[in-house]
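ok so i was messing around last nite and threw this chain in just to see what happens. nothing serious, just curious
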Amino acid sequence: MVNKENNPKIIFPNAVTMLALAFGVSSINMSLWGNWKMAVLFILLAGVFDFLDGKVARLLGVSSKFGAELDSLSDFVSFGVAPGLLMYQWTMDAHYRLMALHNISYKPMAVGIAWCFILFLAMCCAARLARFNTMLDEKQPDYWTHFFMGVPAPAGGALAMLPLIMWLACDGRFSILRTPWFAGFFVVFAAVMMASKIPTLCLKHIHINRDYASVLIIFVLLLIAGLMTYTWVIMSLLGLGYLLSIPVGVFVFLKMKRHSQK
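result:
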């Protein structure tokens, strides 16, 4: 039997993971330059490649602990560090920093409280990824099959960026979206949800009936067309829809848990 760690095919899923990491680091670069759109897009692309690396590994039959650890390190940078730094740079723009230099009342927010939000996001993301790795070999009850424990790291990163995405969708007309307190709430909420054990919906194991396959294909095509035409509006709607799915997931989980215990 060939050792998975020595299988030459393992380079393909690991290369996909490295691409995800490259996009995450590139997002940090875009944040430092104030290119908000590209910073968001790079994190979203990191999420796409993060989804694909596991698929490629399972398709080639080369899933490994090395790949799982590499994936977690990539996720920490792309969804724990990059979104937080982006939100900090976006809310603490040059104008706000100058105000903090000339008015001491602004300094606690500019260099203290807001930065603590970003540190909290990174720490919660790290805690989630560490817990996920330690639970890989643990068998969960059947009712956990269709649920994640907490919000996955890519979804958490997207939730943290939701005020920025909505701000882009409305062309910056609503200044409240860019305030440190409003944006900070989403960052902290995303952090808590990542580190929590609250069940959230997982669509990995859902089987689509063939009778509805054509409907699903049409929906996906319309979604892609919408993303290409109204990128930020559709992204905002998807983010808000995911927020609404969290209480729905908890309700369905509790119902399935009660049913399994009868």
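not much to say yet. Strands lie at 147-149, 199-201.
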